[in-house]
Structure prediction request, 873 residues.
Amino acid sequence: MLLKADATFVYAQQPTAENGKKLDPYQTTAPPCVAPVNNGAAPVPNRGDHGWNAGAGKVPEIGVQDRVAKSSPLDRAQTRASVRPLANGHGHIVLSVPAIHCGACVAAIERSLNARDDVVSARVNLTLRQASVTLASSATDPLPMIENLAALGFDATHADAGGPDNLATDPAGGRLLRALAIAGFGAANIMLLSVGVWSGAEAQTRETFHLVSALIAVPVVAYAGQPFFGSALAALRARRTNMDVPISLGVLLALGLSLFETLRGGEHVFFDAAVTLLFFLLAGRYLDHLMREKARSAVTGLTRLSPRGAMVRQDDGTLVYVQLADVPPGAVLSIAPHERVPVDAIIVDGGTDLDRSLVTGEAMPVTAGPGDMLEAGTLNLTGTVLVRALRTADTSFLAQMIQMQTAAEGGRARYVRIADRAARLYAPVVHTLALATFVGWMLATGGDWQTSAFVAISVLIITCPCALGLAVPVAHVVAAGRLMRMGILMKDGAALERLAGIDHAVFDKTGTLTTGTPTIGAVPDDPAIRSAARALAQHAIHPAARAIAQHLTDLPATICGATELPGFGVEGTVDGRLARLGRADWVAEIAKDSAQTGSPAVAFQGGAASSFDLTETLRPGAADAIAAFKGSGIPVAMLSGDIADRANRIAGAVGIADVRHGATPAEKIATLDALRRDGHRALMIGDGLNDAAALAAAHVSMAPASASDAGRTAADFIFLRDRLDAVPATWRVASETAAIVRQNFALAIAYNCIAIPLAVAGLVTPLIAALAMSGSSILVTLNALRLNRAETPRPQPTPSVSSQQVAA
Amino acid sequence: MTILTILIPVTLFMGVVGLAAFFWSLRSHQYDDLSGDAERILFDDDKPLPAKIARTSAKPKETIR
Prediction:
């Protein structure tokens, strides 16, 4: 009995594990090669994650094999449906295995999977933490493989079919990389020839060198310049300018002038400058792309919360898996515990408890029975229910939220990135200057238009914003790397700029300031009651029961015939007496005095009922995060969908004065829009479906890794670790980055202040141009690297899950 | 100086070979799993590839090379 109790204890702890640890609930031994338990890409365990690892059984001693069997029918059907048929008759599935983190894991998994008869081949990608398995046929059931991995100690789920399997699915990155390689090839060869010219090649030799350079440069610019030309053209067509306009102009003019000079047999050509410029800028752009791609794949790697299909009950009573889009209104669906409701539906049969925290922001589970409405995205906790679909997936609550979110994004689209703002000032000044130079030289030389044009174009070449083009992306890439080491994913560099300028912080409550798992405050005094309560709680899967089982330290009493009644609680016989733990009115049925007690309550038959005081758990670091913002003079508000009582209690605990409770998604957007209209730039931190639109409406937004799929899509930043002080930490990095970007702009302008007079005076030779442009680019890059050095020692040296996951 | 008529083509040719090698490595998915490949050199089992794996190697994306 004791052993059983301990096992349960671990089980009960697992889903709450706040420190980011991913305890395996069923195994006492660690996976073969796991040193610290928290290595995995393990999307930090979260309250919504009731997948394989949370298990669905109420009995503690579940073997490894059972856990797959215990997973919900929907999970199994989804896994089967994710097998892709290949042209040669084989099937293919990509399994996401977050616990892979070393070569030994790779070897163990590949050896075990490849030994199977139904597997043609299996290969693990350590970077993505995925196993790519080719099955004997497209009809092969992949579940035994997942069991196989579970036996090795690795939890596996099927990866998103549309997910990034490898680099080949990233066409934009591939194009940039090829352009970079070609620009690098051109730059190296032309530079080689240029050195010859600078060393004093004369006459025929020089002209030959120029001609060979031209032959290399023209195709190289034509290919490698495309990313810039395309973007510049698009901007011009929309009657805007961006950074790519002066860049394209500079490169093309340099190329044109040099071609002309080559044909004329002139002395100065700028092929090297043009191609090297492209090379540097492409390097910056590729790094920028790589950073976003990495963040994107890490976000897709997080466990997907919304179901992709539903178990539809046929007329003969059997359950059939149907893709989400094909679920018709009126269909009868079966929803097992730990499944999310796929479409808006109404309960036809069965009772259960629901976790609506991601949907409405209510922190505590609610009880539901026949006739109750379920919004798509609600998590079913305890009982299996039959529901009738009311709407199709396209019109369900989830889809409405996504529409709202798209509408709310309009405000943010008006934000103009700092580099483009700089370009708006920069381009007219430089172009006017070049024109003035041309006119000046025409007057001074008495109409020598060739010389005048040469000087004017050399002004444009030397002012070509190489350093300006690199100033921002390089700083952002370095900052993104630093954030990733802190366990924070950044989706876009523009978000970092926006974050640096915030003047308001708005927090959601449930799941953001709190972890979403309840904890208990007051406990009954009677030890017999406590030990009975713990024994009962161990037989229930309701989050409140888990909290009780975890919190109480009493030895659980011996219990017989424990049964959980979804929607009510759990009852069993302890010491020959019937005991109940659950809803207060249900417990009161057997209790002696039906005194007013809160839920959950516990009582023996004929005994006094006593209740547990259930409270929400604050996310670690929440108070620090709020204090950090307040200390920097940034007002903090709370915007919760939960009831006033709970909202105020949490606000009081973390020190927020400005509280809005009971907010619907539309009200949340309205609040943020009002802030925007007043000229404020608000940071929104939230996680739920109901926050998704607000996250999109805010100036900049953050979400925890446990957020709903829609919330994660809408947010600009996602923090993977549990601690909420990731939010002010990100903000500090953003401010530092903004400072570095400003310094870079200053450096670039200082460089121009030196170079422009030389160019206007007609003193710029290709050698000077090449030196000056490379010099300024390198200077800007080195300055951006200082962002890494600025890293202060972390408060706690936690070589955590998340950082490894992403940095890999 | 006539040596240049040989040297320049040689330089360009070597450059192109390097470029082609890079594109080939890119296309054959050698950069897909850098950290995994770093670990793989430590694996002991340097057996020749089993026949059933070799058979499907036409599809490098899904199979073991």
